[in-house]
Structures are given as C-alpha cells and as structure tokens.
Design a protein that fits this description.
Radius of gyration: 18 Å
Structural class: mainly alpha
Number of strands: 3
Helix content: 40-55%
Order of helices and strands: HHEHEHHHE
Shape: globular
Strand content: 5-15%
Number of helices: 6
Largest sheet: 3 strands, parallel
C-alpha cells in the first residue's frame, strides 16, 4: 500500500470528518492480479484532490526508478505458506532482474497492530461504537469484538502515548526508506485473500 497521503481519500457520504486514528493511518491503494494493472490504477489514483488535506500531490512517476528493494516476510506473526512462497518468488525475480535486494529489519509489526487497535478503539469511543452496535451487522459486531480483544479503549493519556509510540515507529520506517531501501515487498495480510 502507498504511504498515507500519497493517494487522496475523502468520504463524501460520511456525516462528518474521519476520526483522528483513521485519518492518520488509513491508506488507499490498488489491488490487482498483476503489477502492470496496479501501476495503471496507481497512475489514476494519485490525481490531486483538494478534498484530502493530508494529500501530497506527487506525480505517479518521476526520476530514476527505484533500485533498492527490501523483502520482508512479516516476522512476528504466523505467515501462510502460500504467501511466504509468493514473497520469496517476488524477491528472487527482482534479484534476477538485478535490483539491489536486502532483508531490512522493520519496526515491530505486532506493536504497530496493537497501536492501530488502540487508536481505533479510541475513535470508536468518540461516538461510533454506539451507532455500530445499534445498526451494525453481525460481521461489524465481530470486528468490534476483535478490536476490543486486541487492545483496550484508552483514556486521553493513553491516546497521547499511542500517538507518541506511532511517531517513533514512523521515524524508524523513514530511516529505513532514507538509508536502506526505496520499496519494501512484504505481506499485506498473513492469510490468502478469499477466492474471486
């Protein structure tokens, strides 16, 4: 997925602005079966939009194509064998195409997942939880229960602490991209997508 702010995001049908946690962490991106299709969609998705104040209007393509590519297997969570095989194949293909391949150490992904759940729980407590419990489907109820299982609903000090930890992790990611790699190929999910 692209960096937050790379693709503009705005829900014109929402009754208000996105809660803080969602606003800071949500990213939009293309999903497709081929890299060529992802590239085609990405070119359309990066079009500038004044509706998203966090959007950074950068052209889809500029300068020299990236050469430094990291491959990461999502250490810290169980990875489905099919996804691991696909990641290793992608790394081998990029290596064969003479890209500079490395295996970077990334910030702890379990901490990032807990931060996400903590900040989303805080967003839920700001008003969305009651509406979701009242009007949400059985699937939405499962999502609420899963977020509650993964992290507590923080008080104000907990929200500030979660944002501070998030800033530290972002700094680590920025250091990796500034000093080691241009792109990291890693799982977007630990389980395969549902069949289409």
């Amino acid at each position: 997925k692209p960096t937050s702010g790379r693709i503009a995001s705005h829900n014109t049908t929402a009754p208000g602005e996105r809660p803080l946690g969602v606003d800071l962490m949500a990213t939009q991106g293309a999903m497709a079966r081929t890299i060529a299709d992802v590239g085609l969609m990405f070119g359309a998705l990066v079009a500038p939009s004044w509706r998203d104040p966090n959007h950074i209007p950068i052209p889809a393509q500029f300068g020299t194509p990236p050469r430094r590519i990291g491959v990461h297997l999502g250490d810290g969570a169980p990875l489905h064998p099919a996804i691991e095989i696909a990641l290793r194949r992608a790394g081998d293909a990029l290596d064969h195409a003479e890209f500079d391949i490395s295996r970077p150490d990334v910030p702890d992904l379990a901490t990032a997942a807990t931060l996400w759940a903590t900040l989303i729980n805080a967003d839920f407590e700001s008003g969305a939880r009651a509406a979701m419990q009242q009007h949400g489907s059985a699937s939405i109820q499962l999502v609420l229960a899963e977020f509650a299982r993964r992290a507590h609903s923080p008080d104000l000090a907990g929200v500030y602490a979660a944002h501070a930890t998030r800033a530290s992790q972002l700094r680590e990611w920025m250091h990796i991209f500034a000093e080691q790699v241009d792109i990291i190929v890693m799982p977007a999910a630990m389980e395969p997508a549902w069949p289409v």
